[in-house]
Queue: 3 jobs
Job 1
Amino acid sequence: MNRAEGPFHGVSQMVAVGASRAREAEAATTEAVAQLDMEAICFVLVFVPDGLDHARVAEALNRALPQTPAFGCTSAGQITPEGYEDDALLIVAFPREHFRFSSTLIHPLTPVSIKDTALRAKTLSERFRKTAGWNRFALTFADGLSKQEDILVAAFETGLEGVPLFGGSAGHGLAFDATFILHGGAFHSNAALLMIVETDLVVKGLKFDHFMPTERQLVVTDARPEDRVVHEINGSPAAREYARLVGCDLAELSPQVFAENPVMVRNYDTWHVRAIQQVVEGESLAFLSAIENGLVLTLGRGKAILETLETELSVTGPDGAAPDFVLGFDCVLRRLEIEQNGVMDSASRILRDKRVLGFNTYGEQCGGIHMNQTFVGLAFFPPARGMAL
């Protein structure tokens, strides 16, 4: 690998990183690509801020990197070598020396066919010839407003037959209006990307949040599951009952309140957040994960978010060394809580020190489950024996 001295030289020895805060798509793409002084790029991941025209970014990428496959999505924020940002076009380049991939686009995504989607994943995996001694994992980015991620990742999990899957739902700031997936030189709505990646690097999966369940339960007594909308909780209007349980007025409900007072579901011995998106239809609640009548939710209580972030990212490789870099998918509601608590600088310092690169999502995927308010990712270490996913 031939890496030139640039703004992010030294962030990673294994991947190249480019970022731009330019407000015009062509200029931002040109500036970010110019920082990728790497020979033989296998593919790039691209995370687009809500202030840039994603279609023009795709056109500029096709001109700047005509022979390089580009994947990614629009985002609700970016994690660059500087930490959290919301106006940076981020490009991460993966070299052929250490990576191979195969990909497919699920489009249209809605409605998901479980059988067909599982078969697509299985076929992709079987046709991608395995490299002896290399590690294999899968990445997925999905339309964050499709309301299909729960079914999608369950189908992927079935078809991948043991290949670990990690991913995030595309975002668009806090607008919650439209999100897009990059594949084949263009951005697509109502779509999901599946990549199977091989690497000779040591890889360790990450998944964590900072919440514990309380004793306060919320039973969904009237819902519209296909739209992830809950009309009643505990027999009362959903938004009003939630506000009562968290101790605020109905009019005070906001993304910040939802971020600090999540609701959780239990899956065997594990708890997952099913985040509330917003108040809709007067006193109903729209969720970012699957919901159904009779579902028992539990109000969550937060632990120290910065301490959890630092502790969980302090992973080590076989030789005890820190990761070369971490590819991270971090829920936008976690970031909102960090902003609300006034600790953005401290959180960015941790992300910077831990060499995290990635984006803020509308939801996260890991282990066949779609969840919210979670950090999901992969830590990469230099090639060695003794650790695998």
Note: The domain at 211-302 is CATH 2.40.30 (Elongation Factor Tu (Ef-tu); domain 3).
Job 2
Amino acid sequence: MIPTVGTPALWAGFVALVVALLLLDLGIFHRRDRVLSVGAALGWTAVWAALSLAFGAFVWWRFGEDRAAEYLAGYVIEQSLSIDNLFVFLLLFGSFGVPPPLQHRVLHWGILTAIVLRAAMILAGTALVARFTWILYGFGAFLIFTGGKLLLRGEEAEEADLEGNRAFRLLRRLVPATHRFHGRHFVVVEAGRRVATPLLLCLVMVELSDVVFALDSVPAVFGVTLDPFIVFTSNIFAILGLRSLFFALARMVDRFHRLEHGVALVLLFVGGKMVASRWVEIGRWTSLGVVVALLAGAVAASIAWPAADRAGPGAPPAGPGA
């Protein structure tokens, strides 16, 4: 059994907090389908970051600086890895031709499903680590492989070849679908039968991409902490701000073209830390500092050596006040 600071009361309280935040965000502030301007998206991203840091302060007050360092490192890693996933969202929206106002609706439901899927994966990962401690070395090797592959992929963006995607082809065979959008509806009735709209197909592909993304992010957070409560809370706070972060970065992703290299180096560092954990001990604050330094260096390199302008596929247009 892996020791955890999360008592049943804390787990229940955190879940209640997440439900309350989702009701406020998705049910009141953003219940209408619209395109956030860059300014508004940055504002909401700052709000979610502030809430995440406030929870980190609570962890520090309640459990000490070591647990707080683990939480902050997990949160930063999760946010940094989400950058690559946001670009996949852009490719999917462009491939399906999802209108910018409806992208908000896809991400709305995507967040809800991602929270449930992430919780299940974290619980499964915790159970595996508790039963087979050697699996951490497997996690580390997988992260090194993924980071190396990402680092060597090059500057060119991958095109979303949906017709060549096995999951998409299987989805089209299993789910009757129409090629036309019907407003904000995921399912409509055509010729007397119920069919899926491209919006539903896009949502399913977004969810599948998040599952693939979680295969990297969840093991990466296990590289800085084995406490399931810290892993879960850092993951969930990162996910809660994902929609705002998408609209904030959708039109700026090409300005930070070196971020992908920074994310790859983070995966290599965390994976190497996990593999070498038996012989080399790296402190919690040192891990956090290395992760932040790698990402900051990638941002600085992007600014110092800008890439040629490229229009991100599916990027929503600037809204009022952008």
Note: The CA atoms of residues 223 and 274 lie 6 Å apart.
Job 3
Amino acid sequence: MKSSRSLLLSLPTGIFLLASRVNAQTGGSSESFASGLILPAALALFVGIGIVFLMRYLSARSGKSGGLGLTGDDSSQTPAENLARPEANPSRKRATAPPNKSDLARAASSENANFSRNYAQSLEISHLPIGQIQRVEPPLPMDELPDSDDDGLLAAIDELQDDSDADSEFRTIALRVLAGFKTRNSVEALAQIALYDLSGTLRAKAVSMLADFDHESVFETIVLACADPSREVRAAGAKALVKVSFDRANEWARFAFSSDLYLSRQIARAAVEAGIAERSFDRLVLRDEKAAYEALALVFLLVKAGETDKIFEAIKNHREIKTRIALLHTLKIANVAEVIPQLSSFIAAEPMSSGVADKAREVLLGINALPVNA
């Protein structure tokens, strides 16, 4: 590059010397000098143009080679030397490309997956509502419905109790009459139809009508209907159980604390057969305090009624370890001595290092209640 610049600067001097030599050869006349100057000037012009283009070409090459360290003071070094030498100025390092949205999404997904895995494997439930609950409250008293001696109601009840093969249309009309009276005797008559009528369709209709009453006295019939042999009746019972707005946790507790052990076991067995009990296991670890407490009250009823096979099956095999711990927490709250053999068998089958077995040992040591049949 420097030699090209020197050549360009010496061009006028060369032209002058050449012209002087031509002038001397022609005798020094001005006409001869002018004519002798034309050829060298043209030649110099072409050379000059060529040098300009050459300089531009070299300049462009130098700019492209700057990434290899050929700019500034490094221009005297070869590309290999510049690549081999570590850069003294960190600011000259090539900037890394910023992460795009897909990279960020993958990183976030990986982080969330790791957090979810660690959270799922944690034995800790103290931060959940179930971990804060230490007892199931005794049920609140129920407001009894009044009786009615209305002639139409009594006639409808007699019609439905008649064992004769009455037309199903008349029986349906009688059901509608009962549904119009929110009384204790109308609920009892509808409950009889819902549980014992030979027609599955009438049983399903009676269950749906009981749900419309939305009173605690219909809860027993609705739960039993959920375990009915007829799919139509079971579906009506499931819808009715969701439809009622009274406190279902209070009703599960009512049967758990009931002195009628046969009725408690009947309700608990119906909940197991209908699948309501197993679905409640997952609800134990919900962050919704009301839903978690309702699930706890139902599992509490199962323990008190002796329906514990499904509970221990879940404690052994449930996919969520927090659910297993929550079920053991419920056994601790129930404090029923009859679970001791099953707890002992579970502990013996589990590895000594199992955190679930540690929780089971804690529950076993805390049981001090008498058997429910004592």
Note: Residues 142 and 216 are 7 Å apart (CA to CA).
